[in-house]
Amino acid sequence: MVLYQVLLAISWVLFIAFFAGRLAKLFYVKGSRARWIAASVEKTLAIPLAVVQCVRAALAMSIEPSATAWAVLMAALYAWLAYDALTNDEDSWWSGRGKKIGNFFKSLFAGSSSIAPSGGSA
Q: Residue 29: is its pLDDT beyond 70?
């Protein structure tokens, strides 16, 4: 019973963080860095949340038969949200930026293109 309550607490903490990332995506501009961070948080927490919910649903089947339907429904919902979060890649903040950063470092570390005059005589 204690394990079930611990899993319930962990699942609520994960859900709140996951849902905050999901809500943040609604308010930030598409393609912005803040939206990319919110999407990254959502994608990072999607699988652990679904796994914890599935384990909790399995425990609910053995501990609380009356709560089994609710736990299975929530596990299915979180599995669907995890699938949605992992397959939806509209918030790729890095798209096209790798080339820009590469060009920046190339120009930063490239030698000077002008040739300095020599001081000696020939």
A: yes
